[in-house]
Amino acid sequence: MPEIVLINPGAAQAIYQGLSDEFTAVEPPTWLRMIAGYLRNNDYSIEIIDQEAEALSVQEVADRVRTLDPALIAIVVVGHQPSASTQQMAGASELVKADFGVPTIMVGHHPSALPERTLVEESTDYVCDGEGPLTLAALLDDVPLNQVPGLVWQSNGDIWKNPRAPLIPVDELVGNVWDLLPMERYRAHNWQCLDGSDRLPYASIYTSLGCPFKCSFCMINVFQHVNRYRMRKPKSVVAEIEMLYTDYGVRTFKIADEMFVLNDRHVMEICEGLAKKSFVDELNIWAYARVDTVKPGQPGLLRRAGIRWLALGIESASSHVRNGIHKLFTRDDIFATVRMIQAEGINVIGNFIFGLPDDTLESMRATLDMA
Predict the structure, then answer these.
(1) Per-residue pLDDT tens for 212-227?
(2) Domain extents for the chain?
(3) Is the pTM of the predicted complex or chain greater than 0.90?
(4) How close are the terminal C-alpha atoms of the chain, in Å?
């Protein structure tokens, strides 16, 4: 009998309707995996239910939970990108209505951004404000509720919000619980494999957490409540990719970092380590960067490491609109960076936002033309 069951809620059908049957990605739940790995490494017994990957109904999840009979359930609400976490509430809200018969806590980016509101609006016993592992560990250790770090809870109609737990060293959040996941069910985005690469098996990993930038629209740092960039040891990252390739046959990857191409030494050591592997030409990896973080000479190394796609947050064609959200690069910078990346055989994904505070119909038309 596990002490805790961690659930990745299924929201794909509600978000994408019929497109979810074939076209959308089905990603391993990275944040859930990191929490689960921390707990297992600290001798807590765990089980994972990936409702989205297994396409389980709420009733099927509830039946499985009752069979497992845990002391605690954690519903981890994190999207494929952190900013998509609120979309996952479509599935999480239905899950917490089920009668699991044991205490339930909601963890993740949406609950951490709106902890009191989540506690009031959802049928959950507790909400976690922060990363999650230390909060869950304290609950499992039967620490008094008013002493559980990061816990948001109710008593006699009053809402209590405890001080957050300290951030955990990132190398303790590696999340090596791949053996508990339905690996055969994960698949890449269809566009990532337009070159004929296999959509499955597929894996997403982190090499760093957080972001030092302060884009006004972004909630990437909400789980840690500080603009901080925490990097894993590059050798650990390379070893994880090699393990996934060797043990599970994964060749198609997503580096889920909020900003992978940022710290030169971090990127260089990971890419050089991958470039030395005999299987590197089989890899199809995509990652995130910024227009102003990709440096001359870097795209060549990225491509030699198996990175075939870079996503750039361009946001708007209007410099006025970009300046308003604290993205201070120019139109020339955008086109120069895109061409530099493409010249090394890497595809570019341009991320754009319509309806930013300074947007007008004219600026949005210009953004569409640029895209």
Answers:
(1) 777 666 666 666 677 7
(2) 4-161, 187-370
(3) yes
(4) 52
